[in-house]
Structure formats: C-alpha cells, structure tokens
Amino acid sequence: MKYLRGYPPDLLARVNELLAQGRLGESVRQRYPEAHDVRTDPALYGYVMDLKNRFLRGAPPIAKVLYDGRLELTHNALGTHATVSRVQGTRLKAKREIRVAAAFKDAPAAFLKMIVVHELAHVKEREHDKAFYALCAHMEPAYRQLEFDARLWLTACELEAPAAR
Length: 165
Prior knowledge:
By secondary structure, the protein is α+β, with helices and mostly antiparallel strands. The chain contains 6 helices and 3 strands, in the order αααβββααα. Strands 1-3-2 form a 3-stranded mixed β-sheet. It is elongated and about 60 Å long.
C-alpha cells in the first residue's frame, strides 16, 4: 500500500480489512459520491484560476494548467507544479505550470479540489512545511482528511480495479 506509507498500524489494519472484503472502493465512493465535470484542459484551467483568484490573488500568474497522462502515480506525482524559465531578449521570463494526473478526471470532485489546492499552495510555498499545510487548510479546511481519503481511493483503484472507480 504505497499510498499509505507512514500512517499508524491500527489504521492500516482497518484498511487491509476493507481491502480483504473488497469494500475499500465502495467505502470511499459512499463518502464522496459527487463526480466533477472538469474533463478538459480548458475547464481545468478555469477551475484552477477560480481557486487562485479566490485565495491567492497576489500570487504570480499561472500560464498553463492541464491533465497529464504521463504523470506516474507510482512516484507519488498526483500533480506537479513547475516554473519554466526562458530567455526573452536580455531578460529571463518565468512561467508557472500546474499539471494534474489524468487519473483525476475520474476522481470524486473533492479529490480534484484537494490536488489543485495542493499544487496552488506550491505557488507560494515551495516546501511541504507548516506554512504550506496551513495555506492548504486555508483554501480547503478539510484538506488533511481529503488527502488521506484520496490515498484510500488510489489504493482501491490499484488493488480493487476496475470496480473502485
């Protein structure tokens, strides 16, 4: 259960029990039945910009937002943020990009929001430190629970597939 490393053994025992019964995916689906309609890159860009404009008005602009089918879920890359630099005349221009794993096209709406909040927080806070998680919690008060539940969903998708989605 690569998505759940570092969690307490008693919690992992409960997850293993649900997996053995084939009910982990069902359990997650019951708590998060709402799908989202953000299926295209332009729709994802609009979704990200709405959140950015609501919570991070003073943050640098984001030039590109897209679903990326090449992101490897196995390397914990559920989304990425990058600053792409290029030379323009005598100046160095930086553009920010956010990429979300294509698997989140089919995720519950709350999990897409959690990933977007995480990547937006990286626009202001580079490291996964206290300030980073405080910003995530400011944008989505249930961030910690959503992160854990998204990990459960990914585990179910991997181990109970295809019924988990």
